[in-house]
Design a protein that fits this description.
With about 325 residues, the protein is of the alpha/beta class. It has helices at about 20-30, 40-45, 55-70, 70-90, 100-105, 110-125, 145-155, 180-185, 205-215, 230-240, 245-250, 265-270, 280-285, 290-300, 305-315, 320-330, and strands at about 10-15, 90-100, 130-140, 165-170, 190-195, 220, 240-245, 275. It has a single domain (about 5-320), classed as Metal-dependent hydrolases (TIM Barrel), CATH 3.20.20. The chain binds zinc ion.
Length: about 325
């Protein structure tokens, strides 16, 4: 199977972690950062290619990447290259998500608006690649509620160039604490997707239930651990909620013991709407085609399975209907 030739939709890809190693090496060098210039050493010390041994290592990797996204010029360039990557992967509709707080952290010269405008310039410059691009604004669950509100307000102010909000990272507040902010975002016309049910915790499916019932999520980032809860699976089915499934990511974060033991096939068999995504391709040293190959080799995915997952992803994409339709038929001018 030629995976690149399959027309694809990707709904769950973190822009900050969608990068070319060569660019990070080059930018790091120009910034005077201690970035390995040997590709193998870079892969060993800057990427996450084996299941996490501890959180500290993982956090350091993210901090390293955070330091790279440090100027408007670099942000624009890396966004442009991420769009080029999407085109190369055969992706026709791509929803990138990013966290303004993550990029802005410890960079007083970068406001949220400057970051967003630089990303928009990168997307606009990449229109030559004919990929419809949507942007999702992330609120980190680790933020104080006041900071979370500030970020939501920023996303709402830019409602014309964001399609949705997402909540990511380690949960520190109950989802109910975000209800009024999310209601405000929804009223402004934004969709909601939420990272939930990713880790194999006893309350994994309760998280998914709350994301849907309390915050009105239309899609769930990961959500794979509903597999053990028939009630929540039924809720997901009845509300036509799509799961944004990222097999390699789930293995690397120890959410599943191996990619071969991933519940993706069982979720599909249970009638859950599943889409195929890469999460953090640059950071994991993978690409979306790698996930397709893995699903073919380890879970027997056929072309019909891929087509079905992509049809679901087209329907579940938060981009406007006309843009989706054009892009999916191969006609396209880029979205936003
Ligand atoms: Zn994610």
């Amino acid at each position: 199977m030629n995976y690149k030739e399959i027309p694809k939709v990707e709904l769950h890809c973190h822009l900050e972690a969608c990068f070319r190693p060569e660019t990070v090496m080059e930018v790091g060098r120009s910034l005077g950062l201690d970035v390995p210039q040997d590709p193998h050493e870079f892969r060993r010390n800057w990427l996450l290619t084996q299941p996490l041994e501890n959180l500290q290592v993982a956090l350091q990797r993210f901090v390293d990447i955070q330091r790279i996204w440090c100027s408007e010029e670099i942000i624009e360039r890396m966004t442009y290259e991420a769009c080029e990557y999407a085109a190369d992967q055969g992706i026709r509709i791509m929803e990138f998500r990013y966290s303004p707080d993550f990029i802005a952290s410890e960079k007083p010269h970068l406001t949220f608006q400057k970051i967003h405008d630089a990303i928009l310039r990168g997307v606009s410059r990449a229109s030559e690649f004919n990929v419809a691009i949507g942007l999702i604004g992330i609120v980190q669950k680790t933020l104080s509620l006041a900071d979370a509100e500030r970020t939501i307000d920023f996303i709402i102010e830019n409602v014309d160039t964001f399609v949705a909000v997402d909540f990511a990272d380690q949960q520190t507040h109950h989802f109910a604490s975000y209800k009024s902010m999310v209601d405000k975002a929804r009223k402004a016309g934004l969709f909601v997707t939420i990272h939930a049910g990713e880790e194999p915790l006893p309350n994994a499916s309760d998280e998914v239930r709350a994301a849907i019932e309390v915050l009105g999520a239309k899609r769930i980032g990961h959500g794979i651990h509903i597999i053990d809860d028939e009630c929540v699976m039924s809720l997901v089915r009845q509300n036509n909620i799509a799961l944004e499934v990222c097999p390699t990511s789930n293995w690397l974060t120890n959410s599943v013991p191996s990619t071969g033991q991933h519940p993706i096939r069982r979720l599909i068999e249970a009638g859950v709407a599943v889409t195929i995504n890469s999460d953090d391709p640059g950071l994991f040293g993978i690409d979306l085609c790698h996930e397709y190959e893995l699903l073919h080799n380890q879970h027997g995915f056929t072309m019909a399975d891929f087509e079905r997952c992509n049809d679901i992803a087209v329907a579940q994409s938060f981009l406007p209907e006309d843009i989706k339709k054009n892009a999916w038929s191969g006609g396209v001018s880029a979205g936003q």
